[in-house]
Amino acid sequence: MSTLTKSSLQPIIPTAERLGDVQEYYFSTKLRELAQLQRDGHDVINLGIGSPDLPPAPEVISALARGAQDPAAHGYQPYTGRPELRQGFARWYQRYFGVDLDPEAEILPLIGSKEGIMHISMAYLNAGDEALVPNPGYPTYRSATELAGGVVRPYELSAEGGWLPDLASLEAQDLSRVRIMWVNYPHMPTGAVAPAGFFEELIAFARRKRILLVNDNPYAFILTETRQSLLAIPGAREVAIELSSLSKAQNLAGWRVGALAGAREYLNTVLRFKSNMDSGMFRPVQEAAVVALDLGQDWYDELNGHYRRRQVLAMRIMDALGCAYDPEQVGLFVWARCPTGQDGYAVSDAALYANDVFLTPGGIFGSAGREYVRISLCATETRLAEALARLSTAP
């Protein structure tokens, strides 16, 4: 049987121009390589992608199983999600962020927040429109912009600047073609937290420049002292919308459950695109997600207990590699600067091919990340300790 890798078939039609320079997602190709190394007998410790290895709460799994037994549960679902799911997100926002949202109009459930990034880009970018994209930042902001026909306009972040955009420098530039600004705090990949007053400055900047802010907020609960929502800032709903996800803090990554929150006018525009792309999540998944959203503080405390212990080991790995990091960073990763003269790709390759430990090179997040490397906390303490042992004895 022929395979994609061995085929010599020549397509009879050309690739769509919208693909441009967009390549297959880095982790999509890398995971195939790691799988091949495993088949070849290598015991690879994967400290790359942020896919939680811990299970959802037992009551969440029970709700899914119970719902799947209902013969009426298997049909198409509302394009705006089930009312009880929207209400669950509204309770969650009020309880943990102090934000009051109208579940009928200001919450749009998504099949994962990554889906929402594409929907927002398609709904608001015309060909040639610009999007401000953080460098370093989540690669999907860039690819979604390009797939929608937009132009990526990177804004540089640095450790010296606290991994925050220089709003004064941006304001001095011609931003007349900018329609969207992607922000992400707590920030991935750096683990930076937005300091007091920054969100207010960001809202004021967006209002002056008439730019739609999109805050991608999946790490709000991971190792953070306080939870932040851009929508908690007075006046935010005039210029901002926010993505949330149950992938990280509720361990539902493979279930694909997220939401877009904000003013109905923005969400209705996104829905015009989204409703032509999917037919909603499986009903039992939505019902179980409601249970996950109603989990108490004890759930998050236990989850973060695991991640704190893992973070200690991940930082020890960075020490063994001679990398420098901020011990106050939050989120699901540890981000560190490589030793002088090395870049993240070289450090990652050395760890993988000499010690069977995969670390993410910071360069995949943009040019400003080339001198960095990232470790995911989505591995057991046993595996992290084994990675530490391998890398500590490396020549």
TrEMBL record:
GO terms for molecular function: pyridoxal phosphate binding; transaminase activity. Its cofactor is pyridoxal 5'-phosphate. It holds the Pfam family Aminotran_1_2. Coiled coil: none annotated. Keywords: Aminotransferase, Transferase. Residues 43-391 form the Aminotransferase class I/classII large domain. It comes from the Bacteria. InterPro entries: Aminotransferase_I/II_large (IPR004839), LL-DAP_aminotransferase (IPR050881), NHTrfase_class1_PyrdxlP-BS (IPR004838), PyrdxlP-dep_Trfase (IPR015424), PyrdxlP-dep_Trfase_major (IPR015421), PyrdxlP-dep_Trfase_small (IPR015422). Its EC number is 2.6.1.-. The keyword Transferase applies. Belongs to the class-I pyridoxal-phosphate-dependent aminotransferase family. PANTHER family: AMINO ACID AMINOTRANSFERASE, L-GLUTAMINE--4-(METHYLSULFANYL)-2-OXOBUTANOATE AMINOTRANSFERASE. This is Aminotransferase.
